[in-house]
Design a protein that fits this description.
The chain has a seven-stranded mixed sheet, with helices on both faces. It has a two-stranded antiparallel ribbon with strand order 5-9. It has 314 residues and is an alpha/beta fold. Strand 2, helix 2 (43-52) and strand 3 (56-59) form a beta-alpha-beta unit. The relative contact order is 0.12. The longest helix has 42 residues, at 272-313. The chain is built from ten helices and nine strands. 50% of the residues lie in helices and 15% in strands. Helix 1 runs parallel beside helix 2, helix 7 crosses helix 10 (272-313) and helix 9 packs antiparallel against helix 10 (272-313).
């Protein structure tokens, strides 16, 4: 099976270059190539990748991870690859990456495995456990090697090339298009499975504030992006985000702050239950903050446009 790994890169630092080097070397050992998509990566990273010579570098001027992945997929298809693997520049290969995914792909169409943040601290442990819970929710249950699931996650996935005959990743969504792709493929008859073996690991989060702002940005963007697709498709393909189309409850933000404050009063950071509860409280606060902020912005814009229209009538 002729295979290639596609990794989109925007920004980055020397640690990113180290990750890309490790991913590329592991891919080569498995007989797979590697395409790094320059989506605005810093010169230091590009120079390091070029010097290593372990990857083909292509460019994608359109900002967005799915646009970048689509550019990589298009290149892979032109080159006649049978399988396309996906991961991110903030992931590191573990064990038999990507051999295990390719072995599974011989009898299925799409594979997603676990790439949880490395639990190097109580904070990172909370992120690790939270990711596992959410992945199980999206997948319709805990992942088990070779068992069907209801989602896809491009941080650790492999897809048979012919699955892309029905189209590439939907770039109308800045987040969640991998889930839309996997669920659409499944609905079209593709065999989509999961794997609980951890052959990739995600870099641990940097700080509470970074995570807070990350989820705020994701939720705010989705408030707009979900309106680009029919509501029936939102409910069918990304039902976990459908609530973002509705105005948030008046007390949702104050309730999130209160819940975070209650969790933060705990005094045992070594307790994994506390770690995940605190991380989830921060994530939900960021999510709700983005939800509220973007709906408020949309309301202000609507009222402003309506006011200008009324001024014209007078």
């Amino acid at each position: 099976m002729k295979a290639v790994t596609v990794v989109p890169v925007r920004g980055g630092d020397l640690h990113t270059a180290d990750n890309l080097r490790a991913i590329g070397i592991a891919a080569l050992r498995a007989g797979a190539g590697m395409i790094v998509v320059d989506n605005g990566m810093v010169h230091e990273v590009r120079n390091a990748v070029s010097k290593d010579g372990i990857a083909e570098i292509i460019e994608c001027a359109t900002v967005g991870s799915y646009a970048a992945r689509n550019a990589g997929v298009a290149t892979a298809l032109r080159q006649g690859h049978d399988a396309i693997l996906f991961t991110d520049a903030d992931c590191q290969p573990q064990g038999n990456w990507p051999t295990h995914l390719l072995d599974l792909l011989r009898s299925v169409d799409v594979v997603t495995t676990v790439a949880a943040p490395r639990p190097v601290s109580p904070f990172a442990l909370g992120a690790n456990l939270d990711y596992r819970e959410r992945l199980a929710e999206w997948a319709g249950g805990s992942l088990c090697c070779g068992a069907p699931i209801a989602t896809m996650d491009t941080r650790a996935a492999a897809v048979r090339a012919d699955v892309f005959n029905n189209g590439l990743f939907d770039t109308r969504l800045r987040f969640g298009s991998d889930a839309v792709f996997g669920r659409s493929a499944r609905a079209a008859g593709a065999k989509v499975v999961g794997c609980h073996h951890e052959i990739l690991s995600h870099d641990p989060p940097h700080s509470w504030s970074v995570e807070l702002h990350k989820y705020r940005r994701i939720a705010a963007n989705l408030v707009d992006d979900l309106r680009a697709i029919p509501r029936r498709d939102v409910l069918r393909l990304v039902p976990e985000h459908a609530h973002l189309l509705l105005p948030p409850p008046a007390d949702v933000l104050s309730a999130a702050w209160k819940h975070l404050d209650e969790i933060a009063q705990a005094t045992d950071p070594a307790d994994p239950n506390w770690a995940v509860a605190l991380y989830q409280a921060v994530r939900r606060l960021g999510w709700h903050a983005g939800w509220v902020a973007r709906h408020e912005e949309r309301a202000r814009l609507y009222n402003s446009q309506r006011g200008n229209s009324n001024e014209g009538v007078r």
